[in-house]
Amino acid sequence: MSSRFKDKLKKIRDDSAKRGQSDLQTRSDEDLQRSERTVMAFEFREKVEALIEEFVENFRAEAPGFVLNRGFFEGKYMLALRQDEAIQDDHGGEHSYFSRVMFLIDPHAQDHEIVLQCRKTLRNADLETAFNRGPMVEATLATMAAFIEEQFLGFAEGYFTDADSPKATIEG
Known about the structure:
Layout: H1 3-62, E1 67-73, E2 76-88, E3 94-108, E4 113-122, E5 125-126, E6 130-135, H2 138-161, H3 165-169
Antiparallel strand pairs: 1-2, 2-3, 3-4, 4-5, 4-6
Helix pairs in contact: 1-2
């Protein structure tokens, strides 16, 4: 091989290595920023989760049969307070009912926004879904707490007020 050819190959390799290091540095900076946003979103989600847990404990003090479940639902982090009930009708027949208040926490790290969704089911009847959204800043936590409280109170009002309604609607 000629010396000139070897020199060109070496230059191509060296130029490629320099570009690769530059690309790697650029990607590393972008990855670091993305990671920081993701970590911040998870930390904010945990603060919202702690708010929900506080209301859960207060609700369970009044309705101890409810169980808290955690997991993922439709790609969002979920906390669901649920209870299965067996209620007898006037003829001695037993019917099963399912009640829940479910919160879906969906942080959007890139937009620096969080969406909180609440779905309620009262004795097998799905109620209207409610949403709250805001920037991931400390001030939003107060808004989220008020939203969570409103959802729990609405659910409790329906649950405790209509406690006898399934019995009245069951036909033997």
